[in-house]
From TrEMBL:
InterPro entries: Knr4/Smi1-like_dom, Knr4/Smi1-like_sf, TPR-like_helical_dom_sf, TPR_2, TPR_rpt
UniProt entry keywords in alphabetical sequence: Repeat, TPR repeat
PROSITE patterns on file: TPR
Ranges annotated as biased composition (Basic and acidic residues): 139-148
Protein name, UniProt field: SMI1/KNR4 family protein
SMART domains found in the cross-reference section: SMI1_KNR4 (SM00860), TPR (SM00028)
Segment forming the signal sequence: none
Region described as Disordered: spans on this chain: 120-162
Length: 325
């Protein structure tokens, strides 16, 4: 086993140095590459969007990977982005059989089945769907595994900003700032002590904070408290300091946490009509290395935390214009 090399590969993976991973493994003679090395190589190729090459590598260890849910997950991801949906479906179904209930796997299965249904009914692919349990494989998958933002996940460019935002005079006054520079993003992140989700940053560069037309996020009434079927937000805090409802503004994240008594779990990203509720980015499990979850916090319920979405993109794409009931 190439123990020193494996340790270096893991370090490079954490640093998003995927080219270095590929170069280092390719220097190892083919006959000396074991299952672990090939798995690292395929994962790095996925992260570099070189999906055809990733599939080729995964297939060289197909026999060894048959009982490994991560092998099926990774080759399924490559098939998905190659739009080989039937093969992707088979791979993710195998991953689900070996690791039942994994949230990432379930999400991809939903996307793939939607793609196949759209193809059968319309003869062409539809829009990219939005939006991710724990365990040895799941933690790796949630954000850094295949680094979806770098591996072909849809970005904020396909959000219809003209139809998404309700730019009333009040919204423009309280929420909306000029698009943030990279320097401002970095300084706000430093002040908050958290790295902001890439999708959120990209979205704010198009429209920096504001009031969306779709302000209801559906929830399970048995989990939300008070039997609610949806959480309503007032607006999305932008990146900045000058507007009252921006991350570092007068009614921003640090103020709400320090003076409002909300838990120190991350960043307040949306305020709510009730002064006792907010929506937050929850970094307790992800740290700054992976995508934070999006949660609702209800101060009237002893800071009851209700999980809304596995990441900010899923949250945005899940917002509805009206309550579901």
């Amino acid at each position: 086993m190439h123990e020193e090399l494996i340790a270096q590969l893991e370090a490079w993976h954490e640093e998003d140095e995927f080219e270095k991973i590929v170069d280092a493994i390719m220097e190892v003679p083919t006959e000396e590459r074991d299952y672990t090395l090939v798995s690292h190589l395929g994962r790095a190729l996925n992260n570099l969007e070189r999906y055809d090459e990733a599939v080729d590598q995964f297939l060289t260890v197909a026999e060894e990977g048959q009982e490994d849910p991560l092998w099926h997950y990774r080759i399924g991801l490559a098939y998905y982005y190659l739009e080989r949906y039937e093969e992707a479906l088979g791979a993710f179904e195998s991953a689900d059989r070996l690791d039942p209930g994994d949230e990432d796997t379930q999400e991809f299965l939903g996307w793939i089945r939607d793609k196949l249904a759209e193809g059968a009914s319309a003869g062409e692919p539809g829009e990219e769907p939005g939006g991710e349990p724990d365990g040895s494989g799941s933690q790796e998958r949630r954000f850094s595994e295949e680094a979806r933002a770098a591996a072909g996940r849809p970005d904020a460019a396909d959000i219809d900003t003209t139809g998404f935002w309700d730019d009333s005079a009040e919204a423009l006054e309280k929420y909306v700032s000029e698009p943030p520079t990279d320097e401002l993003v970095s300084s706000v992140e430093e002040e908050l002590v958290f790295r902001l989700p890439a999708f959120y940053v990209e979205m704010m560069k198009q429209h920096n904070g504001g009031v969306p037309r779709q302000r209801f996020f559906p929830v399970d009434p048995t989990e939300s408290g008070a039997g609610r079927d949806a959480i309503e937000i007032s607006g999305i805090l932008g990146i900045g300091r000058t507007k009252k409802h921006s991350l570092c503004g007068e009614a921003g994240s640090r103020t709400l946490i320090e003076q409002g008594g909300y838990p120190e779990i991350g960043v307040v990203i949306c305020d709510c009509p009730s002064a006792y509720e907010v929506v937050m980015l929850d970094y307790r499990e992800s740290g700054n290395d992976r995508e934070p979850e999006v949660v609702h916090v209800d101060k009237k319920e002893d800071n009851r935390i209700t999980r809304l979405a596995p990441d900010f993109e899923s949250f945005i794409r899940g917002l509805k214009e009206e309550r579901t009931m």
